[in-house]
Structures are given as C-alpha cells and as structure tokens.
Write a structure and sequence with these properties.
The chain is mostly helical. It has one domain. 77% of the residues lie in helices and 0% in strands. It has six helices and no strands.
C-alpha cells in the first residue's frame, strides 16, 4: 500500500526542469535569453582572464604592422582582416591610453557574438528535432 502511494506521487509530479526548458525555448526572446545565460556562465572566466588572451601569433601580427609604420606591411602569412582588427583595437587602446580596457571590450564583444552563435545553434537543433 505504501509503495503504491509513492509511485502515484512520483507519476503525478510534473517535471519542473522540463517545464522550465520548454518555457525558455518557447519564449519570443529565446535567443537573447539563452545568450545572456551563457554569457553569465562565462563571466567568471572572462573576469579571471582580464583583459583577454592573445596567442603568440597575434602578437606577431600586430608587431609586423606596428613596428614598420612607414610601410604598414601586411603579409599573407597572417590573415589580413584579423591583423587589421587587432591593430585597430591596439590603436584604440593606445589613443585612449587604456589598452587593457580596449582589449577587454573587444573580448566581451567576441564572447557575446559567440554566445549568440551558440544559442542560435541550440535553438536550430531544438526546432529541427
């Protein structure tokens, strides 16, 4: 008798996690909400890595461009658009006198766009299921 009562209780209780996900995925602003949730989850990592990270090759890109201001040589070894973006961020940082803030804003922009792309992929996969 007691076992039957426990089974009835388990069956009748709604799955709150599933309901929360269904509510989230049916919300009109679901792309924005998923992106914000993901960005909040990444916030501690973004803050710990302040102002951001650059690999050795990125420093080489900027050095090639900034060390030779008379020629502003761009080589095919580094992607041209990537070099221009990083040089612009470095120039904004140098102009404002706060290079670390310029790179952190750039890092936040990259993280935000990545969250939007991942969120869109999740929504697309959910809708196709």
């Amino acid at each position: 008798m007691m076992m039957r009562l426990a089974e009835d209780t388990v069956v009748k209780q709604p799955n709150k996690t599933k309901e929360a996900f269904e509510k989230l995925f049916s919300h009109p602003q679901r792309l924005f909400l998923l992106s914000v949730i993901m960005l909040v989850c990444w916030a501690s990592t973004l803050l710990c890595l302040y102002p951001g990270t650059l690999i050795n090759d990125t420093w080489g890109e900027m050095q090639d461009f900034l060390m030779y201001p008379e020629s502003h040589t761009l080589y095919a070894h580094h992607p041209v658009f990537d070099t221009i973006v990083f040089v612009c961020v470095a120039w904004i940082g140098k102009t404002t006198g706060h290079w670390h803030i310029a790179f952190f804003v750039f890092t936040l922009l990259q993280a935000s766009l990545t969250c939007i792309a991942f969120s869109y992929s999740i929504i697309y996969a959910k809708d196709k299921r």
